[in-house]
Amino acid sequence: MEYSNSHYEGNHISEELEKGTVFKIYPAAFNIVWGKDERYWKLPQEKEDPATLVQVSWLEVTGWCDKVEKGTKYEVKFKVKLTPDSFGFNELPLYFMVKSGSKNLWKKIYLTKDANVESNGSYLVPNNLTITTTDSPHEDSKLCFGLYEVWSGKWKGGLIIQEVIIQKKD
Q1: Which of 15, 31, 141, 149 has the most neighbouring CB atoms within 10 Å?
Q2: pTM for the whole thing?
Q3: How far is 54 from 127, CA to CA, in rounded Å?
């Protein structure tokens, strides 16, 4: 019997917008649980295309950037949008995570209540998800990030993930 994995593994490519300062990561670079199953996700066809959640009860999207500098503070922002027929995001919080080495930070955000809405209807979340990358020679210094809602067991859909922006902070 042949085993087929229904999880999508991204290409892990990050685009450097400003040398060592700003990075943009598109959904084609993300790992998406259930991402290969068209009942649950519409995956990007081109590099800059979004990933669109059709429906899942287990939302887990992760990625990383390995171009960051050791011992440097970065802010991570997720740019997402909701479709007109989205569901589950008014009553369920999303959990955003950043990690570098053994340090990690979690933020719980109710997307439709707590996130900043841009003029085009996109949400830029979360506010102040900032971490200083490890400077330990014994730890991996890449900056990992994730978006989760895996604890409720409730269905949610209509989330469009556009990009993740990682920006160096002073």
Answers
A1: 149
A2: 0.91
A3: 26
Residue 50 has which token pair?
């979004």
Beta bridge partners of 91: none
pLDDT tens track for 37-62: 999 999 999 989 999 999 999 999 99
**117 SS3 class:** strand
How far is Cα 8 from Cα 94, in angstroms, rounded to an integer?
20
Cite the beta strand spans of the chain per DSSP E: 15-18, 22-25, 31-32, 41-42, 51-53, 59-65, 73-87, 94-100, 103-109, 116-117, 123-125, 130-132, 143-149, 157-168
**β-bridge mates for residue 118, sequence order:** none
What's phi and psi for 111, nearest 5 deg?
A: -55, -50
Residue 48, both tokens: 């800059």
Give ∠ CA 48-112-11 in degrees, rounded to 5.
Answer: 25
Round the CA-based radius of gyration of the chain to a whole number and report it: 16
